[in-house]
Amino acid sequence: MSIFGLELFAMQSWLTNVRIFTGHEWIEEGHVCVEAGRIIAVTTELPADASDPYDCRDHWLVPAFIDAQVYGGGGKLFSQYPHSQSLELLKADNRKGGTTQCLVTIATQPFDTILQCLDALNEYLNAGGEGILGLHLEGPFIHEAKRGAHNKDWVRVPTTDDISMLLDRAKGRLKMITVAPECCPDEVLQMLNNAGVIISAGHSNANYAEAKQFSGRGVKAITHLYNAMTPLHHRDPGIAMAAFEDEGLTASIIADGKHADYSMVRMAKQLMQDRLFYITDAVTPTHEGPYQHLLQSDHYALPDGTLSGSSLTMLQAVKNGIEYAGISLDESLRMAGLYPATLLGISQDYGSIAPGKKAAMLLLQNDLELVAMIGE
After folding, report:
1. What gap in Å lies between CA 333 and CA 321, rounded to an integer?
2. Which residue from 133, 249, 160 is spatially nearest to 199, judged by alpha carbons?
3. For residues 244 and 263, what is the distance between their CA atoms, to the nearest angstrom?
4. Could you count the other beta carbons within 10 Å of the beta carbon of residue 47?
5. pLDDT tens-place string over residues 77-135
6. Is 257 in contact with 250 (CB distance < 8 Å)?
7. CA-CA-CA-CA torsion for 64, 66, 238, 283, nearest 10 degrees?
8. 281 is catalytic
9. Residue of 52, 246, 281, 330 marked active site
């Protein structure tokens, strides 16, 4: 890692005179010491023996971001190109937008393709690949009526044999799954929970009464709030209202102004507070295979015009939340870092700046432009 053209963290290194957002509070004129990829000190008093400090005056240091739903980068959609190279390209694209770790995501696919993706992910991680926490499987266990851009031919109701096959092939790398809970037998959800897979409800046609039962059936999250689900309605409040009311549910949201109006992002934030977090839902230009994502100025669509993904980075989501949804700077940063890290069970390493944590940080200008990503 280099910063200001200098090699950093080969040995103990200090970043000094920087405004620090720890994930919980701001420290003015703070100093951070890093060694071997870990933060070993956060202080307002620079030790006299601090060697070769990097003066970061007039900059901000914030926790790097976590994206729980992104499909590919560098022109290589992972489901279309299930290879380690695709994950390397995704990692590189993520870093440009401030993301240090992600869940690579695949939409509804035939089982053979899902298994190929799991094999490729395991190969990448077993070889020391970085920047990818695991797989987010979005479909095929969804409701056909709310499939959105997903291919209806591969939508299916899961069996316990399906889940056994997935878990066996995943080797612990299946971290999150989006399902329509109303289409899933209780024993399937229980198997996923027992394996430590985060169950998120999405592409679901559940009504309000059914959605109120989600958390009791092991569901922890809602995938891209408002999109591909029963809508808010005064006679049937739908999934979003259940998410607002159930303290046991978190929700991801796509803050690009296309997937949800910013007024709806603002309302969700006011109601859910620390249970709402950003995802990019980002795809990459794709001109082959079943999911051909065509860039339409500021979003992606299938050839038939169906909205199919965003062109967001996590840093842009943070900026959009502040500028267009009226979310405070502190909270917008938490929605990209601390909150997804907490849901994914990695907050011991990511999402905040404190001694013992991974040195995964962003150096920003005070206009939120990225200067450097520090660490992994």
Report:
1. 9
2. 249
3. 15
4. 12
5. 999 999 999 999 999 999 999 999 999 999 999 999 999 999 999 999 999 999 999 99
6. no
7. 110
8. yes
9. 281
